[in-house]
């Protein structure tokens, strides 16, 4: 049975009118589409072996890409809703716009690139894959990031963060470039790394006021190699100058202890 025939059998006439094909790229018009309908279309196309999908007119639809297990490329135009790419296991999502809360929530593998800013809880509990945000992010971003087996998540933020960044971080790499800080010497985020007990935060400049339980040092040679790899990828997506970003001193923030609350319990 042909791929298009499989799609025709699984989608009703109303949804089929929303789908077109340009070469090997499936194009979906999501304007006015309920989030469950959009995600149904997405899953049907994924099962049918589609390699690339472009979704236009996105406006607040939730759970796009959630729990997908494929290597499909998904290009979004507009503003997706909460839990974009949650529990995702492989797809590559590119967003031409801003994203709402919990982007990449508990993602296992894959890539999310946001050509804009992101809301609260970005990268919450992510345990694999990469997220690149061109601009700033909201509150409690990177909460409980963790490593799982051979997976090591990476979160790169071009702008600044808000309160409780990397709270309870247990693993992975978070990079904050602060490119939109201007002349401000410090980011205003409070409680950065609260309860952090693993992983590492890299910052472009010494931009955070740190609380107890954390230590900061200049990034060493091994750290710089990690940072350079992620910054090159960041610049490849957003067109920034690699040399301009890397000309500033980077710092490394790590927890003092792997058990920060040990003395609170008996």
If you had to describe this structure to a student in words, what would you say it looks like?
With 266 residues, the chain is an alpha/beta fold. The chain has helices spanning 3-10, 13-16, 35-47, 221-238, 242-246, and strands at residues 19-22, 25-29, 52-59, 73-79, 89-96, 109-114, 130-133, 154-157, 170-176, 198-204, 214-218, 250-255. A 12-stranded mixed β-sheet has the order 1-2-3-4-5-6-7-8-9-10-12-11, sandwiched between helices. The N and C termini lie far apart (64 Å). The model has no long low-confidence stretch (mean pLDDT 93).
Question: What's the short version?
Answer:
By secondary structure, this protein is of the alpha/beta class. It contains five helices and twelve strands.
List the helices and strands and how they pair.
Layout: H1 3-10, H2 13-16, E1 19-22, E2 25-29, H3 35-47, E3 52-59, E4 73-79, E5 89-96, E6 109-114, E7 130-133, E8 154-157, E9 170-176, E10 198-204, E11 214-218, H4 221-238, H5 242-246, E12 250-255
Parallel strand pairs: 2-3, 3-4, 4-5, 5-6, 6-7, 7-8, 8-9, 9-10
Antiparallel strand pairs: 1-2, 10-12, 11-12
